[in-house]
Structure formats: C-alpha cells, structure tokens
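User: I'm putting together notes for a lab meeting next week and I want to include a structural view of one of the chains we've been expressing. I don't have a solved structure, so I'd like a prediction I can at least talk through. The sequence is below, exactly as it appears in our construct file.
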Amino acid sequence: MSSEWIKMLGVIARQDVYANQIVLREASQIDRAILEASASPSRGSAYQLLIHLVGVEVNYLGQILGGEHVLSEQARRSIAELIVAADAHYARLLGYVDGLTERELARAVSFRFSTGAVLQFTAWQLLTQLFMHSAQ
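Assistant: Thanks for the context. Below is the predicted structure for the 136-residue chain, given as structure tokens.
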C-alpha cells in the first residue's frame, strides 16, 4: 500500500460519509409511516434498509477497531436517533482513516459474520467492503 492509496481511502471515506448523510437527511423529511410501509429489495421496509445501511458500517468499523460493533437499540428508534448514531460513527470512521498507516491497513482482523463464522481479513479488505456495501 502506498501513501497515495492511503490518501485515496480518505477521499473514498469522505464520499461515503457525504452520500450516506444525504440519504439520511432526505429520509428524515419523509414520514416514518411511509418509510415503514415502503418495500425494500433486501429488507422489510425502507426504514429497515436505512438501519441496515448504518448498522453494517458500525459493525465493520467496530470489528476492525476491536470495539463496539452493534448499532444501539436507541439508534433504531427514529431517523433523528439514527442520524445521531451515524454522525458519531462517521466521526470515528474519518478519525480512523485519517490516521491510517501501511502497517494498519495490512493488519489481520478476525471478522465474525452474523452466521457465527469467523474469517481473517486485512483491515484494507474490510474497509473496502464497508465502503462498497453502502455504495450498492
């Protein structure tokens, strides 16, 4: 990994945060009942998809950092609470990315999937998945 690649990760991280904030801000203008009633291709509703969007990022970053990696129940209660949790996550994500080193990117991370399976990845592989998941 070169320092240019690390800089590019910073650009990608900021784009991820910006795009997600737009989605959440726009969703906050829609009545929750409408979000709950709207079908989602991968979740029961558009509201659940928004929770998933933030929750997956919290999970991946938390496992990379070895800390809390579950979106709180409080964050799931309302769009406003979800935005608060997302903003805290984004600050944590950008702080991490801004301090990245080649050694940190190459660090092996044990990642536990929801199925219980645990696999080894490098930090850069998990960051790539974090960003690509939101982009889908």
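A couple of points you could mention at the meeting. Residues 53 and 133 are 8 Å apart (CA to CA). The chain has six helices and two strands.

User: Perfect, that's what I needed.
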